[in-house]
């Protein structure tokens, strides 16, 4: 039988999936894995480089494979890249799993991601592009979510506690 993650974290870039994921893994006594880290390790280059060199379509194909592999192999806390939910097969695989959608408003997103050039989808007019990305993605995040946890004005520790409570998970 394949592994099933204890918790899968989804949400936009900069929402804190990695930070909250590590905290949750520690509190639950399980491993942590991030599919963006898997992609960087496997490809030997940054995600932004893959976007620039090969384009978003090629990146999404690489991401889809990484996500599907991680969902099958990892039994701890798993963080997915912000756009992973764009893939219908990935959304289907998330059905029946404990998925936490970490949400934030645009002002919080701008504060956290700023004008970061490592965010290829936000290179020009980040505020407008983030709003447009979220208009397209929010329904998909909500579709796969078991729980939605707002991160605005909360510490990573508070967010991880709300996520544990929402999923009714006990600490190790």
Question: Keywords for this structure?
Answer:
alpha/beta, 172 residues, globular, five-stranded parallel sheet
Q: Which class do the helix and strand fractions yield?
A: alpha/beta
User: Strand order within the widest sheet?
Assistant: 2-3-1-4-5
Number of helices: 8
Overall outline? globular
Give the helices and strands as they follow along the chain. EHEHHHEHEHHEH
Cα distance, first to last residue? 24 Å
Mean pLDDT: 87
Topology, element by element:
Layout: E1 7-10, H1 17-28, E2 32-34, H2 35-43, H3 47-54, H4 56-73, E3 77-79, H5 88-94, E4 99-103, H6 106-113, H7 126-144, E5 147-150, H8 156-167
Parallel strand pairs: 1-3, 1-4, 2-3, 4-5
Helix pairs in contact: 1-8, 2-4, 3-4, 4-5, 6-7
């Amino acid at each position: 039988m394949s592994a099933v993650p204890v918790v899968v974290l989804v949400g936009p870039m900069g929402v804190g999936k990695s930070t909250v994921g590590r905290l949750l893994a520690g509190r639950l006594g399980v491993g942590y894995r991030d599919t963006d880290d898997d992609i960087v390790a496997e490809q030997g280059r940054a995600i932004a480089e893959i976007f620039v060199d090969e384009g978003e379509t090629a990146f999404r194909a690489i991401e889809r494979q990484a996500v599907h592999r991680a969902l099958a192999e990892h039994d701890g806390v798993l963080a997915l890249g912000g756009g992973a939910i764009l893939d219908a097969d990935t959304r289907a695989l998330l059905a029946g799993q404990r998925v936490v959608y970490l949400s934030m408003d645009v002002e919080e997103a701008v504060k956290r991601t700023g004008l970061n050039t490592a965010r290829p989808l936000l290179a020009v007019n980040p505020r407008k592009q983030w709003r447009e990305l979220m208009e397209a993605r929010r329904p998909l995040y909500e579709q796969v979510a078991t729980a939605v946890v707002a991160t605005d004005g909360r510490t990573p520790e508070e967010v991880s506690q709300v996520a544990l409570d929402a999923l009714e998970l006990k600490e190790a």
